[in-house]
């Protein structure tokens, strides 16, 4: 359902896209040949893209060649599997191992495994039962078909790779998965790309004023990200600090803002309405989608990066921000907490408490000395998390099966 190349092109993406692409490139250095199959969403894009030596992205035609709602991928799985076998036969390809990312890929992987008789490794990236645990409305909750699919894959896959220790625990306790069946390969960060840029230079590049004190949020525009709490927190901060009215601002990177507002997603419309109701229209900017290569400018321009998510499986945004020397405030219900800790960044106790969130932001935005103290520590911590390490963890799992 998602193309690994999308993050490079500024299309709507999540951590899954980056995780799959970066680990594939590193696995190739360990002498793996990687073919990543995804559904074609643009007929103008090449059907086979050579990413790097021994790494390809292959776009298979299965249904309309355009983005579609996630659930509409389900009836296309059989068509996708047939397209896979047609391509493999035409190219005279054979494979030793399957690795499904997200449950759609896992369901396709089960069908491919049955015919090829090779192992299937599974990574979910997010878990339906966890999303339903924290979801506040029907729109935020996953449907039964996804839960059933994940339960089936947990039973039938040869091995599961979780992206965080917290998701490993959820797989064990909520999905009744034997502990020995689960491995963990936490994400990494490309510190060559994500490194600190002088703040004034970064602000100029993204069109911010020098005096701006930017609170930054990055991610898909969806209810689980908790961005509405961030708008409330900003309102509180502006009331407390009226002298910062023309300086303090919130920039949200993500979502499709290129369309007229009438065509915006339901959550983006909700945030726009909330922005207007709170009287902070001029202080909140919806940036829209940005390619990976542009993100370091946004991180470097910011004073603090906030992730008030109700659920995150790992949270690449935190690592990227830390690599750029920016403190991170994250909800402690996410997989991010093990990355940033209470000393290196900040942890809030509840995403439903805008007052507490405002306190944490104010402490970092107004206390320049504290920001300087933690900056180098954040960079060093991010440097411990590399995609090479992620790939090596996968390599150890793969070698048990091929």
TrEMBL record:
One family name in Pfam for this protein: Glycos_transf_1
Official protein name in the record: Glycosyl transferase family 1
TM annotation in the entry: none
InterPro entries: Glyco_trans_1, Glyco_trans_4-like_N, Glycosyltransferase_grp1
Molecular functions (GO terms): glycosyltransferase activity
Glycosyltransferase subfamily 4-like N-terminal domain: residues covered: 14-192
Domain Glycosyl transferase family: 201-384
């Amino acid at each position: 359902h998602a193309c690994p190349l999308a993050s490079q092109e500024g299309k709507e993406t999540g951590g899954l896209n980056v995780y799959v692409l970066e680990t594939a490139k590193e696995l190739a250095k360990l002498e793996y040949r990687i073919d990543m199959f995804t559904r074609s969403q643009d007929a103008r894009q090449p059907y086979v893209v050579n990413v790097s030596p021994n790494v390809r992205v292959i776009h298979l035609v299965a249904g309309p060649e355009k983005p579609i709602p996630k659930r509409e991928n389900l009836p296309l799985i059989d068509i996708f599997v047939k397209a896979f076998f047609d391509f493999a036969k035409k190219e005279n390809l054979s494979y030793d191992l399957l690795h499904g990312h997200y449950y759609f890929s896992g369901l396709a992987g089960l069908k491919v495994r049955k015919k090829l008789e090779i192992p299937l490794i599974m990574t979910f990236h997010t878990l339906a039962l966890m999303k339903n645990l924290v979801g506040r409305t029907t729109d935020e909750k996953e449907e039964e078909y996804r839960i059933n699919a994940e339960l089936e894959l947990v039973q039938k896959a040869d091995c599961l790779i979780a992206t965080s220790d917290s998701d490993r625990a959820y797989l064990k306790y909520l999905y009744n998965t034997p502990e020995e069946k689960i491995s963990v390969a936490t994400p990494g960060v490309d510190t060559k790309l994500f490194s600190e840029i002088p703040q004034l230079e970064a602000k100029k590049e993204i069109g911010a004023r020098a005096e701006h004190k930017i609170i930054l949020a990055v991610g898909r525009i969806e209810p689980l990200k908790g961005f509405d709490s961030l708008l409330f927190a900003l309102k509180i901060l502006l009331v407390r600090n009226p002298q910062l009215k023309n300086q303090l601002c919130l920039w949200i990177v993500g979502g499709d803002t290129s369309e007229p507002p009438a065509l915006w997603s339901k959550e983006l419309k909700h945030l726009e309405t909330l922005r207007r109701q709170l009287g902070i229209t001029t202080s909140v900017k919806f940036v829209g989608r940005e390619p990976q290569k542009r993100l370091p400018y946004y991180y470097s321009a910011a004073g603090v990066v906030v992730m008030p998510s109700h659920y995150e499986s790992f949270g690449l945004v935190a690592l990227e921000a830390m690599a750029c020397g920016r403190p991170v405030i994250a909800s402690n219900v996410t997989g991010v907490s093990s990355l940033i800790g209470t000393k290196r960044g900040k942890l809030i106790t509840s995403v439903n408490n805008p007052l507490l969130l405002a306190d944490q932001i104010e402490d970092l935005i107004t206390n320049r000395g504290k920001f300087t103290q933690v900056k180098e520590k954040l960079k060093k911590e991010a440097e411990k998390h590399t995609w090479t390490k992620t790939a090596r963890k996968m390599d150890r799992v793969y070698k048990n099966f091929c």
